[in-house]
Amino acid sequence: MLVIAFNLLMMGIEVDATSALKPGEPTPAFFLVCNIAIVVIFIFELTIKFLAYGPRGVLLGPEKWWNLFDIIIVITSIIETILDMVTQASFSNGLDSSHLRVMRVVRLARALRGIRVMKLIRSIGALRSIVLAIVSTLWSLVWTLVLLMILFYVFGVILAQLVSDGCSTIQADVVNCDTLNHMRYWSTVSESMLTLFLSISGGVSWIEALDPLRTISSLAAFAFIAYVFVSIFAILNVVTGVFCHRAIESAQADKEIAIMKQMEWKEVSYEL
C-alpha cells in the first residue's frame, strides 16, 4: 500500500517539476532513480506472489483478475522505464522530435500505473463502500441522464419556438431581440438545451436566463419557471432519493458478503 501511495505522490511531483522545465531540458535524474526503485519493488512483489501461489494459483485463482492487472502494470512499467532511460541518455547527443514523442508515450504509460490505486481502495473498507455505492448507481445515472435529456429537449424546443415567434412578431422599436441575451441563451434548440442544463447545475443563474424571456413572451417565462420548478423540486429530489437508496442497498450487500465470508472462515477453522 505504501508503495502505491508513494508512486502516486511521485507521479504528481514529477509532473509539476517537468512542467516547469524549459523545452529540451532533461528531467532530473532523481525521478528516474525513484521510478526504477518503484518498478523493482513491483517486480519483487509479483515474483513473491508467483513463488507463494505458483503460476496456476496466480493466473487461475480467486484473485486472477487483480493478478493479471498487476502483471500488465509491471510489464508496461518495465517497458516505460527502459524507454525513459534511453530517452534520458539521448539528451547528451541532442534531442529530436522522435525522442520527444517517445517521452510523451513514456509519461502516458506511467500515468496508467496510477490505476493500481484501485487495489488500495479495495483493501480499505470505507473507500470500498463508497466505490461500490457509486458503481451500483451507474445504471440509475444513465437513466437519469436519459430523462434529463428528454426534459431538456422538450423545453428547449418550446422555449426556442416561443422566442423565435416572439421576436418575429414584436416591433423592433419596442424590443430589439438582437441586442438581448436571447441570442446567447435561446437562439437555437441546442443553445436552449444548454441553457436549461446550466440553469439547474450552477453554470448560470436561472434568473439571468429568465430576463430575456420576460421581455419577449410571458408564456416563455412561465414555461421556463415551470421547467425550473419541475426539474429542481421534483426530478432532482427523486433522483437523489433513488441514488441514496441504491447506495444503501449496495453497502448492506457488501456487509452481508463480508459476514458470509467470515462465517465460512470460522466453519473451516472449526473443522480443522
TrEMBL record:
GO terms for biological process: membrane depolarization during action potential. Residues 1-17 form the signal peptide. Its main location: membrane. Keywords: Membrane, Signal, Transmembrane, Transmembrane helix. It is a multi-pass membrane protein. It holds the Pfam family Ion_trans. Gene3D superfamilies: 1.10.287.70, Voltage-gated potassium channels. Chain C. This is Voltage-dependent T-type calcium channel subunit alpha-1G (Cav3.1c) (NBR13) (Voltage-gated calcium channel subunit alpha Cav3.1). The chain crosses the membrane at residues 29-53, 65-83, 145-164, 185-207, 219-243. InterPro entries: Ion_trans_dom, VGCC_Ca_Na, Volt_channel_dom_sf. It is found in: Membrane.
